[in-house]
Amino acid sequence: MIFNSLEELNSNLISCQKCPRLVKFRVEVGINNRRFRGEKFWSKPVPGFGDINGELLVLGLAPAPTGGNRTGRVFTGDKSAEFLIKNLFEAGFANQPISISIDDGLKLYNTYITAALKCVPPDNIPTKEELKNCSLYLHNEIDLMPNLKAILTLGRIAFDSLKNYLDEKGLDTRHLKFQHGKHYDINGLRIYCSYHPSPRNVNTGVLSKEMFLNLLLEIREYIGKDKN
Ligand code: SF4
């Protein structure tokens, strides 16, 4: 662990320039966006959000161009956020069903959300090197969660990023295969897999509301209902 607190980690994170392609892209998408013309984009690495002392970690892929990269908060202001937060609310992990801006009053219960990659990648596809660069922050964040009990990985890249974390801890992860709805118990942690709640998956029915909410309710049952 390099950073001993989340504050220290985030103050280093937001000025990170390790990935030249992403440093350029995170600014360009703000300048070139027509829908939000005139709005000042965050256009920096996006920190995690929620309760670092929580028992649940929700792990996404990366900030969306007009979501986290615009608003400065992970899963905020885009379609994936709309789907994720509405369902987290219905399952009792959030105080409200919307996540539209950094000052919208959203609070997470017993839950911390972050992404494997902290900067928006072109076409939502990071390179291996970019993910490796950013793993420094993700691994440190996980190490900073003293009460962590369950991790919900959203999509294969998030799942593989978590596997890398577990590999680095010297754990045998060869039996861990990404499959929506499946969970694994490893070293005192329960790892859940879900398809990413991206519009592409939600609009095509790959991930339905029922599938996602049922998984969240299963996690809630596992963590314990009395924790909010
Ligand atoms: S993706 Fe991560 S490592 Fe790369 S520039 Fe952004 S914060 Fe730094």
Write the layout of secondary structure elements.
Blueprint: H1 6-13, H2 20-32, E1 49-50, E2 56-60, H3 68-71, H4 79-90, E3 111-115, H5 128-143, E4 150-154, H6 156-168, E5 183-186, E6 189-194, H7 199-203, H8 209-223
Parallel strand pairs: 2-3, 2-4, 4-6
Antiparallel strand pairs: 1-3, 5-6
Helix pairs in contact: 4-8
Short description, anyone?
By secondary structure, the chain is of the alpha/beta class. Helices cover 38% and strands 12% of the residues.
Your description of this structure?
By secondary structure, this protein is of the alpha/beta class. It has a single domain, classed as 3-Layer(aba) Sandwich (Uracil-DNA Glycosylase, subunit E), CATH 3.40.470. The mean pLDDT is 96. Iron/sulfur cluster binds next to helix 2 and helix 5.
Ligands, ions, cofactors: iron/sulfur cluster
The major β-sheet equals: 6 strands, mixed
Count of beta strands: 6
Q: Could you say which overall geometry the principal axes of the C-alpha atoms support?
A: globular
Proportion of residues in helical segments: 25-40%
What order do the strands of the largest sheet run in, or round the barrel if closed? 1-3-2-4-6-5
Number of helices, counting only DSSP H or I runs of 4 residues or more: 8
